[in-house]
Each structure stands twice: as structure tokens, then as C-alpha cells.
Amino acid sequence: MFKIISSIKEDLANARDHDPAARGDVENAIVYSGLHAIWAHRVAHWLWVREFRGLARVLSQFMRFLTGIEIHPGAKIGRRFFIDHGMGIVIGETTEIGDGVMLYHGVTLGGQVLTQTKRHPTIEDNVTIGAGAKVLGPITVGTGSAIGANAVVTKDVPAHHIAIGIPAKTRPRQPEERIKLVDPDYYI
Ligand SMILES: CC(C)(COP(=O)(O)OP(=O)(O)OC[C@H]1O[C@@H](n2cnc3c(N)ncnc32)[C@H](O)[C@@H]1OP(=O)(O)O)[C@@H](O)C(=O)NCCC(=O)NCCS
């Protein structure tokens, strides 16, 4: 129980850090669909790994109906995960997401094949993925990287790089870009 409460507190603090529009914790807990989606996913994933898979899928689809955010219960997601705006997000079954990752609306972490293999991306720690970006296949987006809005990424992105365009091209991410990229004040 203590672990659940501290995890909820961490998520609320994370929402404040990532969104200048965020106000009190109570209000944020009520209005942020990204928080509802990740909290429900933690329950769905708990059910999934204990073989209550039908129930996990029902919960996940119900949350999709409520939030517009579809997270497969099999996806592994780390701490301080934040979704801004929500809506139109799809996260596939074999996706693995590290700590401190942020997604904007319209992001797909999807597969390119229909086989029961690792077919979705691995997103390492502290990655930001811009609105509408599609990250496809069992590729890795390295720690501290950023994916530009509407990019289509089908190849690995090295750590501390920026990927933009279709198909995405990468370039090193300069240290001074770090604050700019994580501060939504620049975007909204
Ligand atoms: C990709 C991104 C991280 C790059 O930031 P940056 O390094 O500060 O980039 P700059 O603004 O200096 O632009 C550098 C060049 O890349 C281009 N560019 C920037 N973002 C781009 C994108 N998403 N797709 C294609 N080109 C892009 C710029 O037009 C510019 O081109 P130029 O050199 O020909 O003038 C950022 O533009 C982005 O897409 N962030 C996601 C924001 C988001 O999703 N916001 C949603 C808020 S609701």
C-alpha cells in the first residue's frame, strides 16, 4: 500500500514538472487522462503477468474508451512516465519503456510484423517523443534522445540524439537543448 501511494505521489509530482499548466495535485489527479491511463495500466499489467489476461485486456480497452490512450497490458513501463494531452496514443504489447519518458498525443509505439515476437520498440530512460510520431518495430531509442513531432522512426536512435522527419534522420542532441526539450512551456 505504501508503495502504491508513493508511486501515485511521484506521478503527480512528475505531472507538475512536465506541464506548466498543472495546478494542484487533487485537480491534476482528476483531470489528467495521461495519469488515469498509466494508473490503470499498472493494474492491467499486474493482472497480465498473473495470467488474468482477458480481464487485463478488458480494463485496457475500457481505459482506451475513456482516455483515447491504448496501452496493451503486456507493455512494460518504468517510473515517472508522463503522457501530455493523451488521445490517439497506441503502445503495443512488447513495448518496453524506461524511467522518465514523456509522450505527446498521437504517438504510436507499434509493430511492423504480425508474429508473436518482440515487435515493438524499446524506449530507454528520459526520452521525449513529440506529437504524432510513429516509432515502429523492435528498435531502440537510446537514453536521453528526442523524437520530433510527426517523425516516422524505423531504425535505432542512438543515446542523446534527435530524430526528425520521414523516414527519420538522427543528429546528436546538444546538452543545451536538454531543458528546451523537456519543458513544454516551449511547445504549448
Ligand atoms: C524535433 C525537435 C525536438 C527539434 O527541436 P530543435 O532541435 O530545437 O529544432 P529547431 O527548432 O532548432 O529546428 C531545427 C531544424 O529542424 C526542423 N524541425 C524541427 N522540428 C521538426 C520536426 N518535428 N520535423 C521536421 N523538421 C523539424 C526545423 O524546421 C529546423 O529546420 P531548418 O534548420 O531547416 O530551419 C522539436 O522541433 C520537436 O518536434 N519537438 C516535439 C514537440 C511536440 O511534439 N510538441 C507538442 C506540444 S502539444
Summarize the structure.
With 188 residues, this protein is of the alpha/beta class. It has helices at residues 2-18, 25-31, 33-49, 53-67, 177-182; strands at 69-71, 76-77, 82-84, 89-91, 96-97, 102-104, 108-110, 122-123, 128-129, 134-136, 140-141, 146-147, 152-153, 161-164, 169-172.
List the helices and strands and how they pair.
Blueprint: H1 2-18, H2 25-31, H3 33-49, H4 53-67, E1 69-71, E2 76-77, E3 82-84, E4 89-91, E5 96-97, E6 102-104, E7 108-110, E8 122-123, E9 128-129, E10 134-136, E11 140-141, E12 146-147, E13 152-153, E14 161-164, E15 169-172, H5 177-182
Parallel strand pairs: 1-4, 2-5, 3-6, 4-7, 5-8, 6-9, 7-10, 8-11, 9-12, 10-13, 12-14
Antiparallel strand pairs: 14-15
This protein binds coenzyme A.
Q: Within the CATH hierarchy, at the fold level, what is the topology?
A: UDP N-Acetylglucosamine Acyltransferase, domain 1
Largest sheet: 6 strands, mixed
Q: How much of the sequence is in beta strands?
A: 15-25%
Number of helices: 5
- Give the overall average pLDDT: 92
Number of domains: 1
**Small molecules held by this entry:** coenzyme A
Structural class: alpha/beta
Termini separation (Å)?
36 Å
Please estimate the helix content: 25-40%
Strand order of the largest sheet: 3-6-9-12-14-15
Q: Rg, please?
A: 16 Å
CATH architecture term = 3 Solenoid
Judging from the principal axes of the Cα atoms, what is the shape? globular
Give the topology string: H per helix, E per strand. Answer: HHHHEEEEEEEEEEEEEEEH
Number of strands: 15
